[in-house]
């Protein structure tokens, strides 16, 4: 009787393990697993960059913001993840982002200027270099954007213009 109970327990445990193995096999084969793996590679690259970088999805939601981007807008990383870019720019600029996201979905990289809004609601003039990241099946994984702060350049232009007027 004792042996039969142990056998039943072992069979039950075996069935649980088989079920768990199948669940893990399906998990690993899901496209989202591949997406997470690719995003991890890009996060590693971006995390060490001195340039502000974001990874966004096809709905302009931030998947990752590196420390330089967070510093540019005076936010903590946790405050940015899963937020929509709409929260960091004005309506006109956001409509430009949407048009540019459409181009990224088509595989077209782009370079354009925009305005971001910092936590204190001041504006930052930036240049964006945005590129789509696709997997082997040509599915968009994310959009990687590298930002250049143009604030100093804009201030220099204003100073030069003022000095030329005198």
Number of strands: 5
Mean pLDDT: 81
Distance between the ends: 104 Å
Order of strands across the biggest sheet?
2-1-5-4-3
The radius of gyration computed from the alpha-carbon positions, rounded to a whole number of angstroms, is: 24 Å
* CATH fold-level label: Beta-Lactamase
The low-confidence parts are 158-163
Strand content: 15-25%
Briefly, what CATH class? Alpha Beta
Q: What is the structural class?
A: alpha+beta
Largest sheet: 5 strands, antiparallel
Specify the overall morphology: elongated
Helix content estimate: 40-55%
**How many domains?**
1
The helix/strand order is HHEEHHHEEEH
In CATH, the architecture is 2-Layer Sandwich
Can you say what the CATH homologous superfamily is? Answer: PAS domain
Summed up, the helix count is 6
Element layout with pairings:
Layout: H1 2-29, H2 31-47, E1 53-56, E2 62-65, H3 67-73, H4 77-80, H5 91-105, E3 110-117, E4 123-134, E5 140-149, H6 151-165
Antiparallel strand pairs: 1-2, 1-5, 3-4, 4-5
Structure description:
This protein is 52% helix and 23% strand. It is built from six helices and five strands, in the order ααββαααβββα. It is elongated. It has 166 residues and is an alpha+beta fold. The chain has a five-stranded antiparallel sheet, sandwiched between helices. The protein has one domain (2-165): PAS domain (Beta-Lactamase, 2-Layer Sandwich), CATH 3.30.450. The N and C termini lie far apart (104 Å).
């Amino acid at each position: 009787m004792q042996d039969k109970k142990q056998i039943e327990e072992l069979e039950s445990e075996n069935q649980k393990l088989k079920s768990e193995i199948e669940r893990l096999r399906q998990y690993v084969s899901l496209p989202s697993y591949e997406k997470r793996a690719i995003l991890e590679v890009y996060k590693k690259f971006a995390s060490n960059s001195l340039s502000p970088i974001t990874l966004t999805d096809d709905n302009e939601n931030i998947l990752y913001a590196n420390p330089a981007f967070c510093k540019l807008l005076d936010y903590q990383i946790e405050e940015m993840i899963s937020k929509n870019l709409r929260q960091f720019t004005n309506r006109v600029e956001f409509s430009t982002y949407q048009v540019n996201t459409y181009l990224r979905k088509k595989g077209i990289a782009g370079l354009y200027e925009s305005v971001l809004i910092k936590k204190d609601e001041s504006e930052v003039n930036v240049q964006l270099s945005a590129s789509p990241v696709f997997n082997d099946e040509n599915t968009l994984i994310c959009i990687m954007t590298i930002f250049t702060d143009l604030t100093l350049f804009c201030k220099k232009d204003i100073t030069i213009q003022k000095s030329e007027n005198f």
